[in-house]
Specification:
Structural class: alpha/beta
Distance between the termini: 38 Å
Radius of gyration: 30 Å
Helix content: 40-55%
Number of strands: 19
Largest sheet: 6 strands, parallel
Strand content: 5-15%
Length: about 725
Amino acid sequence: MVYVPSTRYEDAYRRIVDRAGTAASVLLFVAMDVDALCALRILTTLFKRDSIGYKIVPVSNYSEIASMNQTLIVQNPQIKSVVFLNCAAQIDIQDFVTLREDLNIMVIDSHRPFNLYNVFWHEQVQCLDDGDVEANMQDLRVAFENIEFGDSSSGEESSDESSGDEVSSQELEGAGRKRGSSEMLEDVAKADRPQQRRRKRRVDMDPEEFLREQQRRAERREARAEQQRLIQAYYSQGTYYGQSCAISTLMLAEQLGQPPSLDTVWWAIVGATSQQLLQLIDANGYTEVVRRMREMVRRVCPSAASAAEFRLDPAGMARSAEPADAALDSSSTAAPASSSSQALLDSQLGIPGLEDNVPIRENEPFNPYLNEIPEEEDEAYLRARAGASTNAEAGLLTSSKNVEQTVTISESAELRFLLLRHWSLSKAMQYSPYVATRLATWSSKGRSRLDLLVAKLGLSRVEAQAPYLHLDPELKKQLYRKMSSVGPDYNMPDALYPGFVRDYGWRKSRMSASDMVLALLALLQKDTWTGEFELHINTSGFFAAYDALSQYSMLRAGIQGAQHLQQLVVGQGLQMLERQAVKTLRTFRLAILGDLENQLHIFGSPFALRQLALFLMQTLRERSKSAHARLPFIIAGPMPSESPEQMGAEKLLVLGITPLDYPLVQPRVAAPFNRSQFAGESRNHFGMVFEQVANECGADVKRGFFDSSVMEIGRSDVSAFVDKLRRHL
């Protein structure tokens, strides 16, 4: 067994500990995304605890891993373990990394499907399983082992049969050295074709025995063909996502006896929230994430647990459950209908005493000896002794040292208004894809509806344009309550959803998990930003985001970048909708950005391009007919040119997105792996389609991104590529 079940993650880690030396013995290949970044922070806490040296290498595609193999692994015998975070699960690792006898590999990746050679073949490779392999892939494991190693009855076959019907071991070995793409499928299909050879019946064999032998051979061929079809169906099902890489790492830390801390639990929440925000998992998958993280939050912050429970109904709407007291005794005096929401809002606003259930004592007589203050802390005594009238004259610091700092994580009913706590309500709604897609804010009628919605929420225009943190607490409570009642009238029935927030202290604003994801995404793309807005940070984008997970000042810079990025995304999307730049074809939608639309080169990043594609896809879905509402979306944006001489050979970054509820064609083989725990039956087939179309039209493309639905293509090849693509979808 080379996959590691979710109950035995510590086995893979102990192999790293056993091989650790005095020097840096662990090499970390980390994908440049939020989930991998959060997993890295959790894993490095374990390495520091166990005094294990490590080297961090951020990577964005497989070619970078292959180029670093010679210098960082082959020529560096001190490296005993290589850890892949959110990459390498879909490739045969030995094609990119030289597997020395003393080298150990651990893969923590949410990309699916797995390459079967990683989970069933290489003893040196340890893939952390989120439960899908153990529960849904055992038949696939039997099929893979039978094809790769042969069954026990193979010895009964004659030598002429082994050279005829059965596929040679060299062909099978070659078939497994692919990435699970069309090349792998071609090899499997080739292995499935019987050799056209004519055999002669042995003259000394009894006719009845000969017929029985032929029947046994036919049954073995049919069983083998069925196993090959099962493997082919697994690789051709399309890509999807499994358990968050950060949550897997948190589970690893817990199994190793490392108690969860405020930081590690928060990093796991942020990593899983990035999957939800980028629509990589469905509503049921996010419900499972919330359930798991709620339990962890209550362990590390028992006093901060919210008074309300949450669930997601099939439509994805967040609702608060009935209070427990009312459920236990319906005949008792019922609390007001909004009591649970009131308690939740009080928790969100940080009102002291209410979260900890501290009773407020009123009309009690003053007792001067109840809380006697020591002389060294009595500021009045110290001022009198110094003969001063103020603390400043006495050299005392007027700080809030007696005020308890609120540094905690709590559950929260979150509004789908992006970065609400960090600018005004008006801007949070204006630049929120959720609001813009439902109100059509690119039109005058949509902007009028937005103004009317703000008025129905009980806020004046001045209050809506003021910083959210400066609003009256009563208005904030009113905002949440009224939005849940008014939202359905504006096609926003699920404006509230269950989430988590973190307090950083009394002088710092609260940070929701979704806000932090957007800030980290902005920092990760910092290196691609040019023009009038730049983040004045000396470190690279990856390590700036790495520092932002523990440094609030860096996180604030990321929030500023996220605000600017969100304005670019929504502004660009509205311009394209006004000019009808998105083409609706029979089986998909297509949008290609021009040079003038990409002056800042920000949409040359896969994350920014995905945010723009999601905005356009959701908007057109709300405004389209039912027949075209859930069409897949393909978007292409110019890559930044390294020099003026390369402008003629411009490259486009192409991204394909399939909606999570896109109606899929019934799979050819009914198997348990057709449904996963976090993505359901949603699959993205663009990776295989892109590769097949590029080969047919001979386009100059660059693949090998960790997301197989992303590729680079020359602008001159786009026309032929799209024409071929229309025939395959």
